[in-house]
Amino acid sequence: MGDNSAIEWTDATWNPVTGCTKVSPGCKNCYAERLAARLRAMGNTRYQNGFRVTLHPDLLTLPLRWRQPRRIFVNSMSDLFHEAVPETFIHRAFEMMVRADWHIFQILTKRSERLAALASHLPWTPNIWQGVSVESARYTNRIKHLRTVPAAVRFLSVEPLLGSIPALPLDDIDWVIVGGESGPGRRPMAAAWAREIRDQCIEAGVPFFFKQWGGRTPKAGGRVLDRKTWDEMPTPFASAR
Q1: 3-state secondary structure of 51
Q2: With bands split at pLDDT 50, 70 and 90, how would you rate the model's confidence at 236?
Q3: Distances from the Cα of 239 to the Cαs of 76, 96, 152, 209, 235, in angstroms?
Q4: CB 115, CB 109: distance < 8 Å
Q5: Alpha-carbon torsion 77, 6, 61, 234, what sign?
Q6: How many domains are there within the chain?
Q7: Domain that holds residue 32
Q8: pLDDT tens per residue, range 132-151
Q9: What is the per-residue pLDDT for 81?
């Protein structure tokens, strides 16, 4: 529920909420849903509800027990801004992130409208980064909502990249992550789509992080794009405190 992470752009995951529901094509082959089913089958009590949205208030204080500074992906197994998560619980999670100010917290949502609606009531300390998922050109409107959020770092997770995004809006965006899909039923990512976004990031001076090509497993296709590993991070990373 709070473990070292194999996700390349973070160090650990923290899941005070588990479970989710599908909102757009990027959700189709959700890795968290598959993992939740496995954990439930193994008898993990956190997943006795399967992939139904479940709150774990006892895990809210977990980051306070990690003394070594980490980049922490918030709710890798859910979406903090899911409509089934009470606003009071979202506030409690943010209060904990403010208290654990030696960590950097990376929040990612597809529910950008709820994020924008609640943002002005939440404490955006410099160690809280906020991102939205954008899997295709059809969902770039989520970026418009993200721009209204006063986070120190606003980022895009373009994963799984399902099509060309020739005009990715990058104004007021501090970081872009791109990745292909992995696992059963994966949908292939064209190299041209990844290059197109990389080139837009270079043009706009936005750090670009290429996470994976995807394949049978996340590591199957490797991470090299045009003979280079793209590991760029936003500049506030070193001085988030």
Answers
A1: coil
A2: low
A3: 24, 20, 11, 19, 8
A4: yes
A5: negative
A6: 1
A7: 12-239
A8: 999 999 999 999 999 999 99
A9: 98
